Amino acid sequence: MRLSSFLLLSISALGVLSTSYAAEKVITEKDKQSLNISVYNQNLALVKDVRRVMLEQGINDIAFEGVASNLKPETAILYSEGLRVLEQNYDYNLLSYENIISKSVGETVKTVTTNPTTGENIFNQAQIVATTHNYAKPILKFNYGIDANFPGRLVFEKLPEGLRSKPTLVAKVISNATQSKEVSLVYLTNGISWSTDYVAQIVDAGKLNLTGWVTINNESGIDYNNANVQLIAGNVNEVHKPVAYRGMMLKSVAMNTMADGEATAAPIEQDLSGYHMYSLPAKTTIKDKQTKQISLIEKNNVIYKKEARITPQLYFNPSSQSKFEQTHPEMYYIINNQEDDNLGIQLPSGTIRFYENDDNGNLQFIGENSIGHVAKGELMRLHLGSFVNIFASGKINKIEKISENESPTNEDKCRQLSAMYNYQAEVTIRNSGKNAQEVIYTQNLPQDAQIVQENIKGNLKNSGVYEWKTVVAPDSSATISYAVNAPNIRRICK
């Protein structure tokens, strides 16, 4: 029998639920005036919940019902014009079978069993003397003895105090007048985050269509109904404290008068203290335990460049002739995030997946990569894989000593030989595909080495790195030939 079937709440017990906190002014979802939520990339959100409540002049106990179960208590701020907050408590001990049983230890309850033959209910009473650790199964004391495995149900005349149906922020406040007030509750909560997924569909050899979808995942414990949602791109710093007892007391604050600070209409995008904020154009509802996808961007005919880069190296050593064979170049998609290339917007971090139609018009997946937050004007180099229809082979064909000098060292019986060698190198690139492709070949050079001959003009990219670019026609090959003068120093001791 499922343990949940032990619990039977009578109508009288349910009535107690509505009166247990009769002295409090309960503020429910029906009293909500507005809801704003700012969601960060890092399992964090800032919630501002504005609700209306009738307050008496002087001291009032209010219960802000239905806050996030992952609320960070130390961040909660409750305020309103003409309101002074004396004390705040976060109640998160909720109504459940286990909590009702554990809170009722020592109480006498009615018990119900069913006659298996007649179906008749048999009533009795027992005292809950203890609970088991697993699922809070009660141990009952009947007039005939102790029963640790009672097979029936329990009926409660009342619910134990201290349990709530929803996580609730309880506050003791002083109102300056008897009137209806809008009360704002602002807090940080874990359990909700957002990420971005992009789809890049290749249009032709130089253009693609880029769409972006925001995925919001809500595990914070409540529904956000009809909310204004802002998405913050960037990782804000948080101080992570050791996990400890959450405690009932949040803080004591004295706020005499604070402006309500209702959020004003915001543009779709705006900078925010070095971060970037996206405001969804319409209110939306994000249910608890829900993943919601919302369209973020759509840009057509974005200019891109596909790059083939050969990374294997030839090594300049006079004792051996280095080579590599049938190496496929790495594939990169280069996108410049600028308006001239039909983009030029802030791109939040996420995953970009690339698709292209085959000759039959069927869409095919061709690779993916992740990006960090990309600022306007920033260049993206996205590695998707390697070219199958392009391969390269390279080798050093000839090594020749040009000069040699001998000099003594500070050590006895040792001398240093400094020689200059000329290396004749060749790299052949074969393209068996149907489209021409520019291929970039980079070569690391030894210290003080120089390119002295080349059939294709290259460039020294930075210290010790030389680069050649060549376009290889379909079903064709291209060869890069070059010569390097590189020093070689040896120390010889007798």
Architecture overview:
Among the domains are: 97-156; 391-493, Immunoglobulin-like, CATH 2.60.40. 3% of the residues lie in helices and 58% in strands. The chain is built from 2 helices and 36 strands. It has helices spanning 11-19, 97-103, and strands spanning 7-9, 25-27, 32-40, 44-55, 58-65, 77-79, 83-91, 108-114, 121-131, 138-142, 145-147, 153-156, 168-175, 179-190, 192-202, 207-218, 224-233, 249-251, 269-272, 275-279, 284-286, 290-310, 316-317, 320-321, 323-327, 330-336, 350-357, 363-371, 379-386, 390-408, 414-431, 437-444, 450-454, 459-462, 465-472, 476-493. Strands 15, 16, 22, 26, 27, 28, 29, 32, 34 and 35 form a 10-stranded mixed β-sheet that branches. Strands 3, 4, 6, 14, 17, 19, 20 and 21 form an 8-stranded mixed β-sheet that branches. It has a 6-stranded mixed β-sheet with strand order 1-12-8-9-10-11. A hairpin with a 2-residue loop joins strand 19 and strand 20 (275-279). The protein is elongated, with a radius of gyration of 36 Å.
